[in-house]
Amino acid sequence: MFACKCSDIYSSNSNRAFASTCPNPFNSMEEENPFREMAREGVPQTDEPTHVAAPKKEEQDLPKLSPQEFRIYNRMAEHMDMFHENFRQSWNLLMGACTAGKRPQGMSIRAFLSVGEQFCHHLTIHHTIEEQHIFPVLAKKMPAFKKELQLLTQHKKIHQGLDKFEEYISQCRSGEKELRLEEMKGVMETFGGVLWQHLDDEVKELRAENMRKYWSPAEMRSLPM
C-alpha cells in the first residue's frame, strides 16, 4: 500500500506543494499499481482509450514490435488516456455550457457546480499520485518526467488556474457569488490551453514507440503500473 493518501496532503482551495511529502514507494517493485490507487480514490476513467494512445508510424531504424511487445509497451499510455478522456469530457460539458450561455438541459445549478467540484478534486488527486508515485519512477530514464521539466511544469501552470476555478465554484456554491457562465468561462480559459496540451503530451510520452527507447520488455513488466 502507498505510504499516504493524496487527500491527506492537499486540502480544497489550497496552493499545491509539488514536492512529495511521502517517501518514494517504488524502491521495491512489489508496490501497488498507482492506476488502481487513482480508481480507488474515485478518479473516473472511460472504458476505452482514445486516438491519443494509438500508435503512430514507428521509427524506421527500430525493429518492428510484435503484437505482444506492443501491448506491453503501450499499456501505460492506454491506462493514462482513459483517465484523461474523462477529464476531457467533464471539461467539454463545463466549457460547452459557458460558451452556449446555458447549462445542459435538465441540469440544476447545484448539479452543474458539482461537476466542476469533482473535476477539480479528481484532477488534483490524479496529479498528486502521478507526482509521488509515477513520475519519479519514469524520470530515472525519461527526461520529460524529471523535476521542473516539461510535464511537471505543465502541472504547475494547470494548478495556478485550477485553484482559482475551484475557489470560484466554492463561492458560487456558498452563495457568496452568483454563477455567471461568462465569468466562469474566463477562469477556465486561464488554464485550458495548457491542460489540453498536457493531457495529450503525457499520453504521447507513454506510447509504445517512445517507451521502447528507454525500457526493455522485462523492465516494462516490472514497472508497478
Q: Can you walk through the features of this model?
A:
- With 225 residues, this protein is mainly alpha-helical.
- It has a domain at 67-222.
- The protein has 7 helices and no strands.
- The protein has helices at 34-40, 67-100, 109-138, 150-174, 181-205, 208-211, 217-222.
- The radius of gyration is 19 Å and the shape is elongated.
- It holds the Pfam family Hemerythrin.
Q: Care to give the gist of this entry?
A:
By secondary structure, the protein is an all-alpha fold. It has a domain at 67-222. The protein contains seven helices and no strands.
Mean of residue pLDDT values: 85
Low-confidence stretches: 1-30
The biggest beta sheet, please? none
Helical amount: 55-70%
Distance between the termini: 13 Å
Rough shape? elongated
Strand content: under 5%
Count the strands? Answer: 0
In N-to-C order, the SSE pattern is HHHHHHH
Radius of gyration: 19 Å
How large is the count of helical segments?
A: 7
Any chance you could write out the topology, listing elements then pairs?
Elements: H1 34-40, H2 67-100, H3 109-138, H4 150-174, H5 181-205, H6 208-211, H7 217-222
Helix pairs in contact: 2-3, 2-5, 3-4, 4-5
Domain Hemerythrin-like: 77-205
Pfam families: Hemerythrin (PF01814)
Region (Disordered): 42-61
